Amino acid sequence: MFSPLIKELIESLRCLPGVGPRSAQKMALHLLERDFQGADKLADALREAVDKVGRCSSCRTLTEEAECQICQDPERDAKRLCIVETPADVVALEAAGSFGGRYFVLLGHLSPIDGIGPEELGLDRLETLVSHNEVEEVIIATNSTVEGEATSHYIAEKLKQMNVKVSRIAHGVPMGGELEYVDGNTLALALEGRKTL
Amino acid sequence: MFSPLIKELIESLRCLPGVGPRSAQKMALHLLERDFQGADKLADALREAVDKVGRCSSCRTLTEEAECQICQDPERDAKRLCIVETPADVVALEAAGSFGGRYFVLLGHLSPIDGIGPEELGLDRLETLVSHNEVEEVIIATNSTVEGEATSHYIAEKLKQMNVKVSRIAHGVPMGGELEYVDGNTLALALEGRKTL
Ligand SMILES: [Zn+2]
Ligand SMILES: [Zn+2]
Predict the structure, then answer these.
(1) How do residues B26-69 score in pLDDT, each as one tens digit?
(2) Whether residues A12 and A90 fall in one domain
(3) Of A53, A115, B64, B112, which has the maximum CB count within 10 A?
(4) What is the ipTM of this complex?
(5) Nearest CB to A33; choose among B26, B44, B107
(6) Which UniProt keywords apply (chains A, B) (predicted)?
(7) What is the reported pLDDT for B187?
(8) Interface touch B50/A36, C-beta < 8 Å
(9) Proximal ligand: closest to the CA of B90
(10) Which of A42, A84, A91 is the best residue to mutate to test the B interface, defined by the most B CB atoms within 10 Å of its own CB?
């Protein structure tokens, strides 16, 4: 009984994480009944982001520039490279403020069942990056979930063949927890207590 | 530390009901990392809806047509007019399937504190509609909340001066409940047990 465009909007909102049919309907009507300006702004922001945001050519994080701000920053220590799963992890680590090196963002973790292997995580580029640059230490900061640990193990084995120090972020982060929800102090401790693998 | 376009997207997602900074960030990254196609579809759907959806010239419900499907339908009984707060209420009543008349959608309820008075709810148009057409009965189906009851009372007083039968949907719907969440049977009973005001 909703008109076609409203139905389409409700259906499209379902792609948001945690949004079922009921909340999608609530969101669509809220936007059209009560927050037209917000809806207009969101439509623009989404279109802009979809059209322009891609991956940093160096660290693979999400950015609308060819290279992200961190990779462009000559002050960052290129000798240390921290590997994380998502851009949100970069944000969490930057907020902790104790790491001055660079990042490599996997945009996921190994998950054969979803077809995510080493190629999808850009591990060939990671190896090129490590072999061509003056990287002395790679700190693996994937989540301490089962998948994150497996991914860490895989990457560590690969890199240990390459004359580079490989360390794993300390388990100051609670087991089973996701990096982006850990507070800055714990993250700083976890970085400090990292162990050579 | 997110790029400007990603920050803007996160900020814009906050206009969705119940979405705080954390979920907005999760939604933005989900769309850009994992569901680009969904994000693209949502951007289109939102732009289309914002540009084209307006109000039905007759009943004020949300539609991209000049007149909504129900108002265009010659089979609907123009003698009975059901007043509801939102388009979602029309959907709920239609799903109950026991009403064959037409609707008038307030798109809200009286709320002086938010600057929503009779004009914002289109009550002048409602009076015109009732006086110019062959409406014999107006069924008020606003929510059984404090605001819905006050709105019902106000409308009933206005219309009773106009030689039209005014009834209120029966309180089969639980007090304090919102119409759109009530099951079809209860809604059917509530319509059936309506009392003349
Ligand atoms: Zn980068
Ligand atoms: Zn209509």
Answers:
(1) 999 999 998 999 999 999 999 999 999 999 999 999 999 999 99
(2) no
(3) A53
(4) 0.81
(5) B107
(6) DNA damage, DNA recombination, DNA repair, Metal-binding, Zinc, Zinc-finger
(7) 77
(8) yes
(9) 2
(10) A42
Residue A156 carries which DSSP code? H
Shared domain check, A166 and A84: yes
B171 to chain A nearest CA, in Å? Answer: 24
What does the alpha-carbon distance between residue B131 and residue B136 come to, in Å, rounded to a whole number?
Answer: 10
Q: Which of A32, A41, A84 to mutate to test the interface with B (most CBs of B within 10 A)?
A: A32
DSSP B114: G
Q: Where does the pLDDT of residue B172 fall: very low under 50, low under 70, confident under 90, or very high at 90 and above?
A: low
What does each C-alpha distance from B28 to A11, A121, B191 come to in angstroms? 18, 20, 43
Task: State the first-to-last Cα distance of chain B, in angstroms, to the nearest integer.
Answer: 60
Of A108, A147, A80, A191, give the one whose Cα is nearest residue B32. A108
**What's the rounded mean pLDDT across residues A183-197?**
72
pLDDT for B60-76, tens place per residue? Answer: 999 999 999 999 999 99
Chain B partners within 8 Å of A187 (Cβ): none
Q: Identify which of A8, A32, A48 has the shortest CB distance to residue B5.
A: A48
Mean of the pLDDT values across residues B123-129?
91
Contact B88 A6 (CB under 8 A): no
CATH number of the CATH domain containing B10: 1.10.8.420
Q: Measured between beta carbons, which residues in chain A are less than 8 angstroms from residue B47?
A: 43, 47
Range of the domain at B141: 75-173
The number of CA neighbours under 13 Å toward the Cβ of A53 is 28
What gap in Å lies between CA A30 and CA B115, rounded to an integer? 18
